[in-house]
Amino acid sequence: MDDESGLLGFKSGIKSDPSGMLKSWISGTDCCTWEGISCQFDNKRVNTIALSGQPDKSNSVLSGILSPALSKIQFLNGLYLQNLQNISGPFPTSLSNLPNLQFIYIENNMLSGPIPNIIGNMTKLGALSLSGNRFTGTIPSSIAELTQLTQIKLGNNILNGVIPQGIQRLKNLTYLSLENNQLSGKIPDFFSSFTELRILELSRNKFSGEIPLSISTLAPKLSYLKLGHNSLSGTIPDFLGKFKALDTLDLSSNKFIGTVPKSFTNLTKIFNLDLSNNFLIDPFPEMNVKGIESLDLSNNKFHLNQIPKWVTSSPIIFSLKLANCGIKIKLDDWKPSETYFYDYIDLSGNEISGSVVELLNKTEYLVGFEASRNKLRFDLEKLRIGKRLKYLDLSRNSMFGKVPESVVGVEKLNVSYNHLCGKIPETKFSASAFVGNDCLCGSPLQPCKV
């Protein structure tokens, strides 16, 4: 039977299967019962291949190439090969011979070479995801022929060149992700074609120029807009305040200037806002957010003075990054309504005084706390360093006391340039973590005097 020989051909291209993912694929048995295989009820023809590894388990991988024998499985509707890590070789052009193929998800593997132009022949495709591979070259212009597509995910590859203008013909798109490539040029001004688009991810490329005006037409439905880590310039457009459905906005690490639009007060549903590493200036608008989950305004030209009220009152916040934001508070006076779920706080480079002890001793999930270059003054020994805390930077403050034994569990530590004293507990940290204190001694600094 063609289905069985196609599947066994696929298996023959696999050179290593340490977790035994394909051990049930035995010639002469019912291939509809094999792991990862689904069949149509009426004619028992294979219509789905779904094999996935678990990114955190090193043995749940498949190594090998994608055999052209897959083209024998004529009723194949969906091909899902996700997180198998070591599937290599080029994109299998033989897939273009499958008349019923609608869904391709070949994600987080090691396929390489160009995405072939022949992909434009696969006009039944409703979703194409090749994210997390090593594809190079440009996005083929023939992709414009795939007018049934609702999803294109080509992120985390090494693609270059510009976004093909023909993509504007894909009017059914709900999800367009091209992030983490080497794409360049301006972001095309063609978004008025996409009335259904909900997710647009173009971060971590080399795009330049301003945010195109046609993005404003996405306001009714767009929930994720990620344009961070590019070379975009100009001011943040006022129309972004009309995106009532927006959950996540990332404009970080670009060259935006001017103020944040007052219209941002309308973004009442936003959960994740990242404007860090731009050239934005005061004033920052008073927002009407009911609950922010993560906020990063670091490294602009803001002088906020206070941590904004809408941040302090958020019941769900877990990440707060306000480095170099001109904050001048006594930390003991800051009483956020929720501290338990914080997992990262960065308040570096401000003029914050007082003690971090009360704040940190109330957090349960904190992974990182950075507050270097402030005016904090407290006894370091009173700080409860929880088991989850991995990154702690309190350098260039006025801390005193001894370094507690509990720092041993931290992965990255910096308590340099304070007023600490006494013997350093045995740790793996270098001298740079402890230099510039009044009287610390012991490895990695000079030995203590007996």
From TrEMBL:
Keyword Mitochondrion: no
One of the protein's GO biological processes: post-embryonic development
Main subcellular location: other
Membrane topology: Single-pass membrane protein
Stored InterPro entries: Leu-rich_rpt, LRR_dom_sf, LRR_N_plant-typ, PGIP
Protein name stated in the entry: Leucine-rich repeat-containing N-terminal plant-type domain-containing protein
Assigned keywords, A-Z: Glycoprotein, Leucine-rich repeat, Membrane, Repeat, Signal, Transmembrane, Transmembrane helix
Keyword Membrane: yes
Domain of life: Eukaryota
Organism encoding this protein: Lupinus angustifolius
Entry's Gene Ontology cellular component terms: membrane
Family according to the record: Belongs to the polygalacturonase-inhibiting protein family.
Localization in the cell: Cell envelope; Membrane
Gene3D superfamilies named in the record: Ribonuclease Inhibitor
Segments forming domain Leucine-rich repeat-containing N-terminal plant-type: 2-39
